Description:
By secondary structure, the chain is of the alpha/beta class. The chain has one domain (9-174): Rossmann fold (3-Layer(aba) Sandwich), CATH 3.40.50. It is built from 5 helices and 7 strands, in the order βααβααβββαββ. It has helices spanning 42-46, 50-53, 69-74, 77-81, 141-153, and strands at 9-14, 54-64, 84-93, 107-115, 128-131, 159-162, 172-174. The protein has a 7-stranded mixed β-sheet. The protein starts with 8 loop residues before the first strand and ends in a 16-residue tail after the last strand.
Amino acid sequence: MIPFPTEKYRFIAADPPWKYKNVKTGGTMKSGAAAKYPLMSLSEIADLPVKSIAEKACVLCVWVPVPMKVEIARSDILKNWGFTYKTTVFWRKKKRNGIGYWYRGVVEENWLCIRGKVKAFGVQKPNIIESIPRIHSQKPEEFFQLVEPSIKKFDLNPKIELFCRQRRPGWDSWGNQIQECICTEETHGN
């Protein structure tokens, strides 16, 4: 694993490489996350030192696959990371059938969690975003458009995206699959 960040953050977005029990999926049984990057068990994810990079007052937005949400909720991940669940934002993936054994999964959840005293955002927008998925596991631009006004309003900088696919202007980035910056060539974090 690449060295974990050491700076402190007030806003953390994370998309861990969740390890499903069924690592092979799809019609060929060769698709799914396991075919694209190394996966981590719940205990390995819980052991990540996220708490060490979180300020005393911090927001965490963590992406959670629907089929695993009960397992994740029952795990020690949020406890070990030092966060408390508050609400969920749903991402409806348009123009995709998704994969799944019971139904085709076209929704992903993002759990908003806090550490310490963080004022509720009071955003008057629905807790669902809709967009067409981009490259595998890359999160939608609409998510960032939803959270960035609150980050600015409540001074939740600095911010970092863990397990990201592409650098974002104004964000620090951490992950072993980071591609070049999206949007503009503005300065951004490491």
